[in-house]
């Protein structure tokens, strides 16, 4: 507790604080210094979803200016490794997703198809790409896609899927900027 003597011309007595009071005061001081959470971004956009069957071109766009037409040409399940060193992990098999990507924006598109492509399995889980090459379909340039305006390219993205599971959906979207996601239903 603080003691203070009142009166004209008198000096205040020194403050005496108990240990508990010091700790509580320190907590209040530190709490006042804690950063507040950032306000919600006004630029945040809800991702839109375009959906179709395999073989259909769907638009993919994002807030960075990306504008693509992406087609899942086919799902190769199971897929064979490209060479003797390309083997799936025990209890898994390769699946290849053959994509055609066309840049419809006025600027060059550059991104990694391995990062942008995911699959949904029959158990409902989402799987991410694997870098192993498969026979008969190259992985763009190690996943990298670079396209001038109006240019297109075709390649495969590889996945390792647990045996007994199959692909029900393929998705392509920008993983950094919000925008439109394309989703294909696999029969």
Key words describing this protein structure:
40% strand; 187 residues; disordered N terminus; mainly beta; Immunoglobulin-like
CATH class: Mainly Beta
* CA-CA gap between termini: 76 Å
**CATH topology-level name:** Immunoglobulin-like
Number of contiguous helices: 2
Helix content: 10-25%
Number of strands: 11
**CATH architecture type:** Sandwich
Strand order of the largest sheet: 1-11-10-6-7
Q: What does the overall shape look like?
A: globular
Largest sheet: 5 strands, mixed
The domain count comes to 1
The whole-number mean of residue pLDDT values reads 83
State the secondary-structure class.
mainly beta
* Beta-strand content estimate: 35-45%
Reading the helices and strands in chain order gives HEEEEEHEEEEEE
Ranges where pLDDT stays below 50 over 5 or more residues in a row are 1-15, 21-46
From the alpha carbons, calculate the radius of gyration and give it in angstroms. 29 Å
Task: Give an overview of the whole structure.
This protein has a single domain, classed as Immunoglobulin-like (Sandwich), CATH 2.60.40.1240. 10% of the residues lie in helices and 40% in strands. The protein has helices at residues 19-33, 113-116, and strands at 48-53, 57-61, 67-79, 92-103, 109-112, 117-121, 126-128, 144-147, 152-162, 167-172, 180-185. The strands form three sheets. It has a five-stranded mixed sheet. The protein has a four-stranded antiparallel sheet with strand order 2-3-4-9, with no helix packed on it. The N and C termini lie far apart (76 Å). Residues 1-15 and 21-46 have low confidence and may be disordered.
């Amino acid at each position: 507790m603080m003691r203070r003597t009142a009166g004209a011309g008198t000096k205040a007595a020194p403050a005496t604080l108990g240990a508990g009071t010091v700790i509580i005061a320190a907590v209040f001081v530190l709490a006042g210094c804690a950063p507040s959470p950032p306000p919600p971004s006004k630029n945040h956009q809800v991702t839109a979803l375009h959906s179709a069957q395999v073989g259909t071109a769907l638009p993919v766009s994002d807030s960075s200016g990306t504008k693509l037409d992406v087609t899942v040409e086919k799902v190769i399940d199971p897929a064979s490794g490209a060479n003797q060193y390309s083997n799936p992990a025990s209890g898994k098999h390769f699946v290849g997703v053959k994509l055609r990507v066309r840049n419809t924006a006025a600027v060059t598109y550059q991104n990694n198809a391995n990062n942008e492509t995911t699959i949904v399995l029959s158990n409902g889980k989402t799987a991410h790409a694997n870098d192993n090459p498969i026979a008969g379909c190259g992985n763009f340039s190690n996943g990298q896609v670079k396209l001038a305006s109006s240019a297109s390219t075709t390649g495969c993205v590889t996945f390792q899927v647990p045996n007994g599971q199959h692909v029900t959906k393929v998705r392509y979207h920008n993983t950094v900027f919000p925008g439109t996601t394309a989703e294909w239903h696999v029969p």
